[in-house]
Amino acid sequence: MLRNIQLLIFDIDGTLVNSTDVIWNAFNTVLQTHGCEVVNKEFVSLHMGMPLREMFRELFLEHANEEFFTTLVEEYVQVYTKIKIQHTTLQPYVREILEYFAQKKKLAIATTAYTSAAQYLLNEFHLRHYFDVVYGADKVTHAKPDPEIIQKILNECSVTSKQAVMIGDMTLDVLAGKAAGTHTIAVTTGTHSRAILEQAQPEYIIDSLKEITHIITE
């Protein structure tokens, strides 16, 4: 059980929403625009959570300059914004969990997506009002698993690391939380299996967000 928790920090993709299909579609749309070969869903699943620039670099675009990578990322954000709601669904119990904890704790978002994309998604699902802080990769110099984004959220919310818990579906969420000194909860609703999540050694691994109410006490 975790006691004296004042702040819950959530990842979005794979944690609060199921968005693998929309990320895959947007990624391939951009690649096709530039005459590049499309990628399979497995590639996206394995690399979800990685900054977009690094995902593009992982392909056969190593020769491209930074200006080209910036163009790819900007085009991706435009495509993603247009199609994401119709291909994205909430994970089970999200609204109930947020409603429950928002009355008792501070809530925040730490995502490797752009802040604007995260804000848009939260607004479309009418979830934005639950969160005190929303931070995306554009708010930091180093994305997760670097702890910078979590450290900034802790500072803005005036909460110590031991009063906070990072909740995410990937090892990078767990590693970022541990590096920042927060408690960590991994959820198996995303692309990383329980076996993969165990390698990062989170304090808890759960199969549904509803289990958080049994972990975090008043």
CATH superfamily membership of the largest domain: HAD superfamily/HAD-like
Low-confidence stretches: none
The fold-level CATH name of the largest domain is Rossmann fold
Count of alpha/pi helices: 9
Largest sheet: 6 strands, parallel
Total beta strands: 8
Indicate the mean pLDDT.
91
Domains (count): 2
Shape: globular
Q: How do you describe this structure in short?
A:
The protein contains nine helices and eight strands. The protein is α/β, with parallel strands linked by helices.
Molecular structure report:
The chain is α/β, with parallel strands linked by helices. It has two domains: 7-18 and 89-214, HAD superfamily/HAD-like (Rossmann fold); 20-87, Putative phosphatase, domain 2 (DNA polymerase, domain 1). It contains nine helices and eight strands. It has helices spanning 20-33, 41-47, 52-58, 66-87, 94-102, 115-124, 148-157, 171-180, 194-199, and strands at 7-10, 17-18, 89-90, 106-110, 133-135, 164-168, 183-187, 204-206. The protein has a six-stranded parallel sheet, with helices on both faces. Strands 2-3 form a two-stranded antiparallel sheet. Strand 4 (106-110), helix 6 and strand 5 form a beta-alpha-beta unit. Helix 1 crosses helix 4 (66-87) and helix 4 (66-87) packs parallel to helix 6. The model has no long low-confidence stretch (mean pLDDT 91).
Note the main attributes of this structure.
single chain, 218 residues, alpha/beta, Rossmann fold, DNA polymerase, domain 1, 9 helices
Q: How are the SSEs placed, and which strands pair?
A:
Blueprint: E1 7-10, E2 17-18, H1 20-33, H2 41-47, H3 52-58, H4 66-87, E3 89-90, H5 94-102, E4 106-110, H6 115-124, E5 133-135, H7 148-157, E6 164-168, H8 171-180, E7 183-187, H9 194-199, E8 204-206
Parallel strand pairs: 1-4, 1-6, 4-5, 6-7, 7-8
Antiparallel strand pairs: 2-3
Helix pairs in contact: 1-4, 3-4, 4-6
